[in-house]
């Protein structure tokens, strides 16, 4: 073969060898790009998870701090103090915090109901308002009833266990009085109830009852409404009424109110259960034909309670004396 032909074949072979690795490299490039993109996505997901995890922990701490001070957990506060510039992650962080609260602490955030609109100025605003959410939350327990004890569920910000018990009993009693009086209680009638309970002297650390009521308003347990039109034509106390606040509706349920009334009443009574059914949204209870002690309930006590609902006074002492005398004769 002539030298020129050999030389040309060598040149062609060399060019083919150079092109083969280049083509192989071009075939390999799409896979390498895909792998790189997947790695970047995984890194981004890990970064998002780590950021969300920190925000979830921060929201859990913020919620528990608010509950400790009996302050509502507001959505604006979450955005400002927890999320910062991560406002779009609200739903993810909120749901993650709920899961953590349920699994670790036996609690969850529950949205507060919207405050009732009772004045003439507020009612038109209510009809024109499109939003039905309060955007405020409180922590409630999701533990079974058997575990809802003071030894397991620590109280909120207190000075002592006795003070906490007295404070809870005080606002529970007032909320119960408001609910069994149709959801609204005039200021003079509330004051008569408080005098009957000796609330002016049995105060918390020398705190006046008016100051305690104002504190309950700030914390959302009570709502004080003053009718401006009625105040112009009558006394301010007569124009003032008390209602149950959003936090009070969540923390003190109708079942809890019924339990308090039964405990104060002290005996099973079909008449009492009937009146509780009419006043509260509670489940119907099956009662025996007679009371727990085998004696039919005293209707006279029910009449005394009816009088108390009208004038803010409890059962008379004379009636209680007759009751005790009758029981002593039965024992003899």
Task: Provide an overview of this structure.
With 332 residues, the protein is mainly alpha-helical. Among the domains are: 50-117 and 134-150, MAGE homology domain, winged helix WH1 motif (Arc Repressor Mutant, subunit A), CATH 1.10.10.1200; 155-252, Orthogonal Bundle (Arc Repressor Mutant, subunit A), CATH 1.10.10. Helices cover 60% and strands 8% of the residues. It is built from 13 helices and six strands. The protein has helices at 3-68, 75-83, 90-105, 122-128, 161-180, 187-196, 209-218, 228-233, 246-251, 254-265, 270-279, 299-311, 317-331, and strands at 73-74, 107-111, 136-141, 185-186, 222-226, 240-244. It has a three-stranded antiparallel sheet with strand order 1-3-2. A three-stranded antiparallel sheet has the order 4-6-5. Helix 1 crosses helix 2 (75-83) and helix 1 (3-68) crosses helix 3. The longest helix has 66 residues, at 3-68. The protein is globular and about 60 Å long. The model is unreliable at 291-297, 303-309 and 312-332 (pLDDT under 50). Residues 59-257 form the MAGE domain. Pfam families: MAGE. Residues 31-48 have a biased composition (Acidic residues). Residues 283-304 have a biased composition (Basic and acidic residues). One of its GO terms (cellular component) is nucleus.
